[in-house]
From TrEMBL:
This is D-aminoacyl-tRNA deacylase. HAMAP family: Deacylase_Dtd. Its EC number is 3.1.1.96, 3.1.1.-. Homodimer. Belongs to the DTD family. Keywords: Cytoplasm, Hydrolase, RNA-binding, tRNA-binding. InterPro entries: Daa-tRNA_deacyls_DTD (IPR003732), DTD-like_sf (IPR023509). It catalyses: glycyl-tRNA(Ala) + H2O = tRNA(Ala) + glycine + H(+); a D-aminoacyl-tRNA + H2O = a tRNA + a D-alpha-amino acid + H(+). A Gly-cisPro motif from one monomer fits into the active site of the other monomer to allow specific chiral rejection of L-amino acids. GO terms for molecular function: D-aminoacyl-tRNA deacylase activity. The keyword Hydrolase applies.
Amino acid sequence: MRALVQRVTTAKVEIQGEVSGEIQQGMLVLLGVERNDNKAAADKLLKKLLAYRIFADDEGKMNLSVSDIEGGVLLVSQFTLAADTRKGLRPGFSTAAAPADAQVLYDYMVGQCQDAHTGHVATGQFGADMQVSLVNDGPVTFLLES
């Protein structure tokens, strides 16, 4: 499981011109599910996401997590993060989870995040053609893997 995490001042997802999910300060998490991922991997990644220290403290150092600041979390399924890009000029998707399996884990991750996080949790829609807008704060971007 891969999560591309961006620290944002604002982010939103639109589907056919309608806002599906929106947050203010927090993190945009683009989530890619791979073939061998499971609920244990999702739990491990979520624990890390909510505790990962990417927000500035009073001294300007990245010492605070999204949980510490009670920031928003926008979770968006991102199939292409599971691509194998090691060879050639076209990505391969043999390492990606089957859509039905990926959706189960994405939905599980969303539910677990809603249960565990005190801040606002918003989502895209699994499998939809989405337009994602954000203001990356920093810019700060990390790739986390479980």
